[in-house]
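Just scan my protein:

. . .
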Amino acid sequence: MREARRAARCIPWIADCPSGGSRRRRLRMREGWDLQAQLYMDLLGATGRTAHGIGYFCLGDGTLMVHAQGDIPGAERLDGDVSGLALARLGEIVAGLRRGIVPLNREDDAKAFDKVGIGAYALEASPLVSAHTVPGGAP
């Protein structure tokens, strides 16, 4: 009986604890480019369950940021669509791939990603990626 009451009060929540700080993640969420959180929500949704929110507890600076229904004490709440632009861009890329179009990275991609809080690790660290980078900015 006690377990049933506790389960009834349980609100599904998705939380991630990245090791870094909150500055870039906050920017990414505010700009609508946080694809990771939406991926977690979609994965949970595939099981037939839903979450009432997502959050990041950034270990680097101890900041809790949430995108959720209701208030979470001690959390920085980020409202709005935290992943809309990322999902739209991903949809464009997948649609192009289905048509046989493989986009190559451009010289200015790392700068464009940085402006919205996305780390361009593969662009900076992989000789394979940089060998196939084309001149110019985002299309």
Remarks:
- DSSP finds seven helices and four strands in the chain.
- The chain has two domains: 12-102, 104-139.
- The longest strand covers residues 53-58.
